[in-house]
Amino acid sequence: RLEGEVLAAFDRVHDLAGLDAWLASQLTLDPARGDLALRRVRVLIEAEQRDQAWALLDATLPKLPDGEGDDRLLALGRDLARANRGADAQQALMRLHTRRPARLDVTRELAEALFAADAQGRSLPDEVAAEQVLETVNFLNGKKLTVSASRLAEERLARDPGDFELRLASIRLLARLGDGTGAEKRMAETRVLADTAARYRRWLEVMIESTSVERRPDVLAAEKGALDREAGDWNEVQAARRAMFAEACIAADDRALATQVLRADLVVAPAGERVPLLRALATLLTAPEDVKQLRDTLTELADEDPTGAADALARRALIGVGTTR
To answer: Percentage of the chain surpassing pLDDT 70?
Structure first.
């Protein structure tokens, strides 16, 4: 109790020199008091005696149980960050990250201290795993530190340009920062990595999400051109990519382009692959000028899909009474 009152008295008068001297004397009497040693580290930092502070910290940590040392380092880093001592917070958190490189929460805290303080020339250690970098980028972005998140993504991509998920994150960040040109350039560069159905779908989603409404028609048209240039003999991979692209066009409210894709595919699709295309096309033909095309499409669907023929014919019959539903 007396010790607490002494500490509180020093805090009230903000007597750093006196507090440091008292802490030093107590540690002389009982060198095992890690709590007082770490309190003195904080005092020395505030007194701008950093070399002495970090030396004391490095000497104290090995004496503490692992869990206690980690907790105290994290608390010290957070305390320094709250006090707007970003560079000092980085020193504490970097030590903790060295001790516990697999802890995502520590990586996040360190990144926030590094980038929120705009520590030029500083970044996360190279050994941080790609998954942790991505999580940290998303964490920073979620805290509205978009510039910092983008900077971290760009730094890591410079070393690992093949990180597909980080590239998608960077596209979103560039768009959010208003760099539409940079986002489109990164999208074009990333497309070559979208070499599976799952990746291509993710790439399309980010493309739609990160493109402005004004630019979207041109970007979609460019992607249709790329798909058309890749088209050869009908194959499942290309069919799946084109189907996903048609879905993306619908999501982007460009039903006309989706219709073009489906019509082109119907020309080359083998008999066994036409029914899903016809069904998809029939759902898109809703404009008044599409009535004839819709009637023809439903007729083809009834002929090629015996199990759904009754539904297709019933829908075609409704066209004559003024509805295309």
So the answer is: 95
